[in-house]
Design goal:
- There is one protein chain.
- The protein is of the alpha+beta class.
- Among the domains are: 2-146, Jelly Rolls; 176-198 and 333-483, no CATH class.
- Helix content is 26%, strand content 12%.
- The strands form three sheets. Strands 1-3-4-9-6 form a five-stranded mixed beta sheet, with no helix packed on it. It has a five-stranded antiparallel beta sheet with strand order 2-10-5-8-7, with no helix packed on it. Strands 11-12 form a two-stranded antiparallel sheet.
- A hairpin with a 5-residue loop joins strand 7 and strand 8 (107-111).
- Helix 3 (176-193) packs antiparallel against helix 8, helix 5 (333-348) packs across helix 11 (475-483) and helix 8 packs across helix 9.
- The longest helix is centred in the C-terminal third of the chain and has 23 residues, at 400-422.
Length: 487
Amino acid sequence: MFLLSINSIANADASKTPLQAAQLGRRLARRRSDDFLDGMICDDVDYTWKQDWQPASGFMEFSAPEQTSGFNYVFDVTDGSDLTGITWWDGEVGSTPTEQTASDGSTFWVLDPRDAWFDNADAFSHYMTLAGGAVPGDGVDLYYCYAPPTPEPTPQPTAAPTDAPLKLYWDSVSDLAGTVANIVGFLAQSSWESAMFTACDENNHTGYTKANPNPATGRPAECSQREHPGDDMYHEITQSPNSCTVTTDMHMTAQTKASWVTNGFMECKPDPTDGSEGTDTAGCCWWGRGAIQTTGPGNYGDLQHDVISKRPGWTAETGIDLCKDPEALCKEDDLKWLAGVYYWVAEVQSKSCFKTALEQFVKDGITTADHDASDDCKNFAVGIGGAVNNGGWNSHAHGEAGRIGRFDDLMVGVNTALADYAAKKIPAAGYSVPTCTGNAAVDTILDASKLETVAKIDDLVGDAMTGKDASVYTWAGLCEALKEFLD
């Protein structure tokens, strides 16, 4: 988004041919955070344009949404004007921009700033000249594209008191708005963590393999994609008394991977018994899985102990055992969600700020506020991201703006449905509301807001134009998982 332009010029829509108008419509339909460069997150960036001697020459200044290394810039023209080249300066004459073609036939430009000069910087100023007629302003979007960060291992859930069973916050009589907003908060965070429900198994986004190991660990991505020396590898996250026993004889292959991953499915294999060279993945079967990426033997063990083993009819002989088969999380529709809901009720809802922030969110009119919930608590949309990503309500989550955006998008229909329900406009007479949680009021809001569709949970086809993979989650699986945490 453009913030400030000096004498910027925009081409009038009336000048477009029908073909140009159609192409522009497809470009605008492509506006998403991950549509440009395979394997990279591209965040739309607000920039300031300081014009120099002519409208298309000047300084472009902006702040990075994330301090990262190895990033690119993407320039995308949305007003139908032409962009045929970019001359720019990144401390020296900038690298040659490359023009690339999207699946809809439109083009965008990619710039690769000098890594040694700009890696991990948080503010940028580049002098540049755009050729072809495009002028920085409302019709030229700038994206900051970077590799997805390695998911932090799920923080250890806070143990619930023995007299306080793990239950989803629920008060559909006196706090229907808060009850549904809490579900929406979970869906927004799950959407972010699971790449819009397209991933159950952690993707090998770093490309680390036996031949190209993680320099921090000397091991492939299955063992850890964390790149800070001294960080635990996934199989070393064993801080819980319920932690699964790590063995080196497991052999399992991931059920899912993104289409852009070129290194195949995550796979852990035992070392050969004939003395030949090892696999380097023996014992490394504990990568992230599920809606909120459960990671490490400690977290799998807690989920097994607190939830799975307490299911009616479960026995050690015939029941699911995540300690023996952690990949089971990605084999059952409800289990993909179950781990995430468990983390939500055990960790997110246990934060001292949770109820305060939720109450303030409802009081504010169930809209994301730009103020804190209290002197000690970030607002609801911010705090749930911090709790999921970092284990702290008042911490800033990676991709905070994107997480909040997804929450806001999902709440639009929910707000309307809540108002219609209060006015007794829904459900319509004779309409049979599909059952999800089993609570008529909540299920009416979920159905009327079309959450299943808006969140793209049951998008089993994907979108070739934007490059979005098909969902690997189901709405039915979510409903079953939610019901396990209701009275």
